Amino acid sequence: MRLPFGLNSMLSIQGPRSIYVYSLLIGLFSGFGAYGFNWALTWTESFTFGNLIGYDPGTPAGDLHFHSVGLAAELSPLWILFLPAIGGLLVGIITSFFCPEAQGGGTDSLIHAFHFNEGKIRTKVPFYKAIATILTLGSGGSGGKEGPTAQIGAGFGSSLANFLGAGARARRTLMLAGTAGGLGAIFRAPLGGAITAVEMVYQEDIESDSLVPCILSSVTAYLTFTSIAGSGSIFSVQEYSLNDYRHIPLYIVLGLLCYVVGYFFVKVYHFVQDIFSKLPLPNYLKPAFGGLIVGCIALLFPEVLGTGFGLIQRMINGEVLTSTSFGFSGPFFLLAVAIFKVFSTSLTVGSGGSGGLLGPSFAIGGMLGAFVGTMANVLFPELNIIVFPFLLVGMGSFFAGVARAPIAGMIMVCDMIGSYALLPALMIVAMIAVVLSHRISIYRNQIKNRFLSPSHHWDMNQDIMDRIRILDHFTEFRKYAMVSEHLSLTQLQTNAPGIQASDFILVGSNDEYKGIVSLRKNRILPEYEAELKNLITCGEIVQDVPPVCQSDTLGKALRILLEYDVDKLAIVEENRCLGYLRYIDLFNAYQNEVKNKNKQRKSV
């Protein structure tokens, strides 16, 4: 669906400022979407965990606004065993018969859409993703809730771009802005959500072109979400600062541990994905089979159920986490929860269930940090170590390592606790985990950097095009698609097939340049042609696109074509239009320049 006639010139994307305005709108929608999803998920969990399973996983301080589990019924081994399988079966039906994109973590599919599908996401995906994730996490599956919220925002950004008739570049930007909005809202992390969105698409780079739109969207979504759910960070943490440098070696040990377990997590998750993809079962049964194994794990460790954020808040509050099944506690119990969380998450998401990987990564890293802090208290009681800083540092550092997102891991945790006091320790541990994990990533669709991404194919050749002047390759220019500003739009539509053009250069009576009219963005529908015939002239709907002169470079011309989403560009000297250049003309000139350079090298 496209914009109705008459709204094109007013609402279509004309440049960066339009992107910024629409990023605010996407953030607003993402904030409402994240709130609705979080409310539905928390209500579902309050029923399943409280009335069926009989286990209270705890509630993060930022989610106290929502209905929590509260008083739980008696622990039910039968429901623990079979409820994840029941949820998996329902999710399998949704992903097999209604929306295949709803399975898995969600983030990887967003990365794939960015690099390989021009940022296109089907409109129905966020809806089914939200339902599938509620069923997965509400039935005890191990996953995160960032997947659907990111896809809600990303889906709206992509759909809005399609509605506006935007090009691939703008669509990718709006898709990432929606992703940032979903993350910023659900984690109450306005800056962290934006950084995560631009960093997660690459292993060693960031999508810097989308940074400002992502910040605008994430902040707007955060403000929208907190205006309804109440202000404050997702975790309530007492003040702390790294002022005892004897703790630094322990943080280094934590960095090494995050790398080892992170490497194990990535390998296990990808192994489970591959095994279930080849498993001789109908696709709708695979999440149920994975859920049944998760239920077996949860019989021993119910702590692996759900997102794990409630357990983190309980430990931050100073509670000594004790095994629900065996009644023991201590550092090795925390390590066991982290390891079994690796398996439960891999089986939940890797089998085809629906849930994010960012949330479980935080939970696993938090348990590893708590393990190091608790063990240090046992071995070095004279250091008077407080456990929760190690827990929080482990959260960000583990995610930074497995997702190849060092800045996002650090900033996200700081936003989630509402303080940057732990940033120095986060920098130390995250850098260790990232440097050691340089060959692994939990996201298979990540690309190393912008140079290798199809989305930036022509950007990488920009340095050559910026050295080629238009006059070096062109002395005459095409004029077939030059029309008068007084020509009616209906007449232009009639003439367009014979000229074989969709974008036209508009000129005045003395060939002075006026702008560009695009029939891709401005067209009278057949049912209105009789009523509007000759009433609208091209001059009334002209798009203000800057021209170039003969001394300008091909690089400048290409940037204007991409920014304004037109397929030709006017060549103007002394306000007189000499003609125009098309995409194909620029690319041919580029190819000729490369051939000439190669011939010169061979002759030398």
Automatic annotation (TrEMBL):
Ranges annotated as spanning the membrane: 20-41, 78-99, 174-198, 210-236, 248-269, 289-312, 324-342, 362-380, 387-411, 417-436
Main subcellular location: membrane
Membrane topology designation: Multi-pass membrane protein
The entry's keywords: Chloride, Chloride channel, Ion channel, Ion transport, Membrane, Transmembrane, Transmembrane helix, Transport
Domain of life: Bacteria
Protein name: Chloride channel protein
PANTHER family (UniProt xref): CHLORIDE CHANNEL PROTEIN CLC-E
An example Gene Ontology molecular-function term: chloride channel activity
A GO CC term assigned to this protein in UniProt: chloride channel complex
One Pfam short name: CBS
Subcellular location: Membrane
CDD domains: Voltage_gated_ClC
Domain CBS residues, every copy: 542-590
UniProt keyword Glycoprotein, yes or no: no
